[in-house]
Automatic annotation (TrEMBL):
Name of protein: Dynamin-related protein 1e
GO cellular component: membrane; microtubule; phragmoplast
Domain GED: 522-614
Keywords of this entry: Cell cycle, Cell division, Cytoplasm, Cytoskeleton, GTP-binding, Hydrolase, Microtubule, Motor protein, Nucleotide-binding
Provenance organism: Nicotiana attenuata
Domain Dynamin-type G: 32-301
Subunit note: Forms homodimer and may homooligomerize and heterooligomerize to form the phragmoplastin complex. Binds to PHIP1.
Length: 614
């Protein structure tokens, strides 16, 4: 069962190395939160540090007044064979062994200052310390900043709340065992540790009570009411501890000797002698180790379930982020072409209706073009005054004898020129829609998000192609307008005399009596031209969309990246690699994801290998 505690230690160290140390809002900190641990909680000067040093059997913690523990210390104890040298290792200094525990104390202070500075502020980032010794049991303890009631000079006004919130992030977790340390020479009802433990663990199932400073109680008093569970009952037995005195600390009294003195104290005490076998730091360490072993084993199924779920999520994330790119040119070219095809597929889906956006092109033909045609200023252009002016200018020095054919032609050609504007505007509008669909398609292509350089290159190549399609579209629609001007529909005008006769009751001579230079004559010319222009307008309303679709939309679907393909095929090594230059943030995200995936798989394999052999 000892290997299970060691396994939890290794997983916790690996989590911290990845920046996951519990209490976070990311999905991966849940593994740390799921691992059973023992959090040491107590008020300042409650004797927390002395309890930890008694369990370890070494002086290694910084001492002083005020807040000394300003970062969580994850203390992982590993029992070694008798006779082996004791040493310590820090998670932030892998492969470096410390055999001098005075240096360990200094490194804890220096590492604390590295994050918090030489101030009295606190940080939730833990320090990982592993101690290997024949004088310890396999155990993991988390030393937390001491609870306080008042902020002192140099501390934030919120320090009291900040410390309590940090401690709560640990002890609120259902997998956290609470080691509540209280001094025996103070009323247990005022214990900060017990107060907090009662709030987060009202049944006392996760709480172990520790009474320190039993030897400092007033003469004639004892703590039997607490130790025997009468003053405050917990599900687990209370354990009394006798710490070294300040004089012993000043004299650097050996911790092994201090343990022996502690055993003698309880064995010879008239008050606590009957409890001697269940008192002292050695008993506390064994009790916690045994309970932690059972705690871990009971939670292996839920931990394994969480790990398997996390592995599935991480593998899905890796698929989403994409695998690392090959280094040879052939594979890089293949990757680029595949990414282009993925983009092109999404672009076509937008045009064909599988995704929104293509309907905006139809909106240009069904709404924008007809509206533009209706707004053309034909009423002003074909007013009586303008018709008279144009017809007179077309006649020159010789007025027309019967019908002003040159006037008709000049009026019609001038009117048809107005169609150029709506025709070209339709091309521009569709061009804008296509550019927007290119932008959306690049944004929606998950595979392309890895490569900002390739995104920009594809966008530039697509827009360059769309510009060519727009130029061709404009030439085509302008040709449609010019064709209407270059050859007028004769049948339309051949019907005019007959229609006039029908309007006059079938008497041609009546029309001859009309003044060819009167207002009615020019109004009739304007009306005839307007009818012809309306006929052309109806034609163009149908042919302009056909030309736009043929020159722009169809070409975009079929050959948007054709020129890009010919150019990319000529590139080699370095140029291809530059296109596949990923976003550094995404590369970092993939690397972290891969590390976490490796951690979870390794944790699963190790749990499977040791969980059921005990």
């Amino acid at each position: 069962m000892e290997s299970l505690i060691g396994l939890v230690n290794r997983i916790q160290r690996a989590c911290t190395a990845l920046g996951d140390y519990g209490g976070g809002d990311n999905a991966f900190s849940s593994l740390w939160d799921a691992l059973p641990s023992v959090a040491v909680v107590g008020g300042q000067s409650s004797g927390k540090s002395s309890v930890l040093e008694s369990i370890v059997g070494r002086d290694f913690l910084p001492r002083g007044s005020g807040i000394v523990t300003r970062r969580p210390l994850v203390l992982q104890l590993h029992k070694t064979d008798d006779g082996q040298q004791e040493y310590a290792e820090f998670g932030h200094l892998p492969r470096r062994r410390f055999t001098d525990f005075a240096v360990v104390r200094k490194e804890i202070s220096d590492e604390t200052d590295r994050i918090t500075g030489k101030t009295k502020q606190i940080s939730p980032v833990p320090i990982h310390l592993s101690i290997y010794s024949p004088n310890v049991v396999n155990l993991t303890l988390i030393d937390l900043p001491g609870l306080t009631k008042v902020a002192v000079d140099g501390q934030s006004e919120t320090i009291v709340e900040d410390i309590e919130n940090m401690v709560r992030t640990y002890v609120e977790k259902p997998n956290c065992i609470i080691l509540a340390v209280s001094p025996a020479n103070q009323d247990i009802a005022t214990s900060d540790a017990i107060k907090l433990a009662r709030e987060v663990d009202p049944t006392g199932e996760r709480t172990f009570g520790v009474l320190t400073k039993l030897d400092l109680m007033d003469k004639g008093t004892n703590a039997l009411d607490v130790l025997e569970g009468r003053a405050y009952r917990l599900q687990h037995p209370w354990v009394g501890i006798v710490n070294r005195s300040q004089a012993d600390i000043n004299k650097n009294v050996d911790m092994i000797y201090a343990r022996r003195k502690e055993r003698e104290y309880f064995a010879t005490s008239p008050d606590y002698g009957h409890l001697a076998s269940k008192m002292g730091s050695e008993y506390l360490a064994k009790l916690l180790s045994k309970h932690l072993e059972q705690f871990i084993k009971a939670r292996i199924p839920s931990i394994t379930s969480l790990i398997n779920k996390s592995i599935d999520e991480l593998e899905s994330e890796m698929d989403h982020l994409g695998r690392p790119i090959a280094v040879d040119s052939g594979a890089q070219l293949y990757t680029i072409l595949e990414l282009c095809r993925a983009f092109d597929k999404i672009f076509k889906e937008h045009l064909d209706g599988g995704r929104p956006g293509g309907d905006r092109i139809y909106g240009v033909f069904d709404n924008q073009l007809p509206a533009a045609l209706r707004k053309l200023p034909f009423d002003r252009y074909l007013s009586v005054q303008n018709v008279r002016k144009v017809v007179s200018e077309a006649d020159g020095y010789q007025p027309h004898l019967i019908a002003p054919e040159q006037g008709y032609r000049r009026l019609i050609e001038g009117a048809l020129n107005y169609f150029r504007g709506p025709a070209e505007a339709s091309v521009d509008a569709v061009h804008f829609v296509l550019k927007e669909l290119v932008r959306k398609s690049i944004g929606e292509c998950q595979e392309l998000k890895r490569f900002p350089s390739l995104q920009s290159t594809i966008a530039a190549a697509s827009n360059e192609a769309l510009e060519k399609f727009r130029d061709e579209g404009k030439k085509t629609v302008v040709r449609l307008v010019d064709m209407e001007s270059s050859y007028l529909t004769v049948d339309f005008f051949r019907k005019l005399p007959q229609e006039m006769e029908n309007q006059k009751g079938g008497k041609p001579e009546a029309s001859a009596a009309v003044d060819r230079y009167g207002e009615y004559h020019f109004r009739r010319i304007g009306s005839n031209v307007s009818s012809y222009v309306n006929m052309v307008s109806d034609t163009l309303r149908n042919t302009i969309p056909k030309a736009v679709v043929y020159c722009q939309v169809k070409e975009a679907k079929q050959s948007l990246l054709n020129y890009f393909y010919t150019q990319i095929g000529k590139k080699e090594g370095k140029a291809l690699a530059e296109l596949l230059d990923e976003d550094p943030a995404l590369m970092e995200r993939r690397m972290q994801c891969a590390k976490r995936l490796e951690l979870y798989k390794k944790a699963r394999d190790e749990i499977d290998s040791v969980a059921w052999v005990r």
